[in-house]
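ok trying again, last paste got cut off:
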Amino acid sequence: MPQNANTTMNGTQSCPSSSTAEKIAFTCACSLIFIVSLTGNTVIGIIVYKTRTMRKPINFFIVNMAISDLLYPIILIPQAIQNIYLDSWLIGGPLGQALCKLVVFAEDVSAIVSVLSLVLIAVDRFGAVVFPLRSPLISSKLCPFFILATWIVAIAIIVPELFAYKLVKYSRTLVCELQWNEVFGESSSFENYLLFLTVAFTFIPLALITIIYITIYLKLKSQKIPGEQSANSGQQRQQRERNMLKMAIAIVLGFAVCWLPLAISFPILVLADMNIWPICGVPYFVYVVYFMSIANSAVNPCICFIFSSNYRKELKTLLIGKR
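nice, full thing came through this time. structure:
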């Protein structure tokens, strides 16, 4: 992921700095995302924790995604805002070195956990709709193990970045810089690692999720759509499944819209030339796609409240304090 995208590898600027208006606009937008993401994802977790009827696999996976999304407002947004005002890393020494590594590490771990959570949500919806009379493919008892697995896999895959990013001091600046070849040798390629991450944790999961939801759609299409006034419990259950499916698909679409521009453009720019970042015009494009990826942390809770009457009901209960 792009860190200090408007800074060259030697810490110097080759493009005019952003105007004051651009900086203020970016700061306000990031601050809005900070507030919405922090509030929305926290409320999602509280609702599922306090409401027994909400403790279902799909909601557990949504909470897992909400927890990963909280890494953005807490860790990444302050750093993103700092980058547009200062050319140098603020904190030096061992603490600055650790923060340099953790900011990049937390960002990519969060993204992978979100993707894996989307896959689990799709699998849960597949079992509920395609095999409604069978036991759930992922039971509530197994949810903690699958959730823990998403974090273990993400951390294991991103661990190399903890070693590859280092805080480097130049004449007047500190730069959090990728030093892949210095750490892993000239035979190792960061470009290959980046392509692996992009394909394995963006394109393949989204393709798999698309296939799953197409299968679910065809299954639902073959079933009789229940009438609004129907009192049949089976038809009511089908309608609830359709509503949950709409929310799940909306979350996937939100993720795709927010993350695909970065997933497609960043590997292309890196493969073209690592020094392409300082070229005038490129930093603005990078900040736009980077901002879109950050915005996903605020989009997810909004989708939950828009598409789920249960979340809206429990939010009202939480605010009013009565059931």
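cool. DSSP finds ten helices and two strands in the chain. Residues 1-16, 274-279 have pLDDT under 50 and may be disordered.
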